[in-house]
């Protein structure tokens, strides 16, 4: 009899264990499908010097779920009542099901990390799973304590209390750790995208803030009155342009366009997300971590007027066209705040067929932008037009298909077609076109890309400028997205306030031989990508207030103290201003424990 019971328990154990393994493998399969991981890429991850950290970050959340399911299985095998057995079986099924559903949510909606493919798994916190499971557990705990009176379930009561507390502690509903929005799905989204970590404050941040403000000087600009179009192309990466990298030929149309203007071979993204790109390009702030590490548009402040307000002051009409959902991370609020007069987003195309990110494809904004330009040619009105594309966003889904190859063909054809149409409208007789990526594509590095650019690969984007007065050339100076901001100001204004260390993309005045980018190993740090002669150097900086320093003291960085000084001034400026902004964020998103500045 005992042997039969033992065999029965063993059978149940193996059945549950098999379910757990299948669930973990299913999620891995989803990740594999998204990124098309091959043996070369996986080998590169294993050979990476930070491979242990990368793999740990990738599996930690899955490991929590794995251990939780194993514990539930253990409780199941030792349950004393049928009620507890059924309850535990139901809990295992619910958590496993929610795990799969959450994988689908990540696949369909949530932003993916820009680093190695395995970090995709880390982008799924246990939020929705444990949040919903928590409610179920608490209901049953109340039932057991308030309704059932049998002593035989006292052990199970204790188990439920312990597990329930554990689920509550790691759930994003724990307000002091994460934001909470309207429901658990929103909570899952915000837990993924809005990591809150307090970073050590500066003791003398007010003086450092003043030192930063002194860096801004009045300068005599060129005073152009041309029209200007800036296409912020989703995930437009340097590696995919053969003229930039010599590696891939996915952007043949872009490469053909670049022959008519300036092509930048060392353009660095200041962030790894679309919001970071827009902040760097149009608000002029390097989106390195400040007092709060949080992906939120309006947290970042600048000591000079934004690009849209700048053009508003010149009596230009300022426009922002996209098919993106404007409510995502309050993008619309940010665009209004920095001064765009006309903003078009996904609402205009809500009756059209949608593809990636639940949005209409790029063709709609290219057509609408062309119609707008033709209308403006009938008037003397000046305009500044920003176009934000989306069709190259993961997971790939375009009118041409869902493969990587079909995505590139669609995106590149429509970009090049728009350029050809612009030439037919005579736009370039009095207009400038800038095409720039918002961030590097969110796919793993490939071995030949890493061999050519090493760690700087993570931040390399494609960029070109075309205009009648711009001589075609290839520029291999190092630039970052914020340089585009001040280059535009210098080009379009007579007396303009500029920072003392920006590099001008138009006249190639180089004042700085490095760029700042986010750290991909630790979101609370940053990296410096520097060009010394023909060599590109990549070094990590640990942000620790007055103790901020390069991780590698034997690095080959030129003028390291100057870079540290600038970093401390910039961060202190943001810390002082953020003190007045935190209240607004609390009102918009939820309450959290505020650090005293």
Tell me what you see in this structure.
This protein is an alpha/beta fold. It has 2 domains: 192 residues, no CATH class; 369 residues, Alkaline Phosphatase, subunit A (3-Layer(aba) Sandwich). 45% of the residues lie in helices and 13% in strands. It contains 20 helices and 17 strands. It has an 8-stranded mixed sheet, sandwiched between helices. Helix 3 runs antiparallel to helix 4, helix 4 packs antiparallel against helix 6 and helix 9 crosses helix 19. It is globular and about 85 Å long.
Helical content stands at: 40-55%
Q: How many discrete domains?
A: 2
Distance between the termini: 68 Å
Strand percent estimate: 5-15%
CATH architecture of the largest domain: 3-Layer(aba) Sandwich
Task: Write down the overall geometry.
Answer: globular
Could you say what the CATH topology of the largest domain is called?
A: Alkaline Phosphatase, subunit A
Mean pLDDT: 75
Largest sheet: 8 strands, mixed
β-strand number: 17
Strand order of the largest sheet: 6-5-7-2-8-10-3-11
Structure classification: alpha/beta
**Could you name the ranges where pLDDT drops below 50 across 5 or more consecutive residues?**
31-42, 108-130, 167-198, 585-597
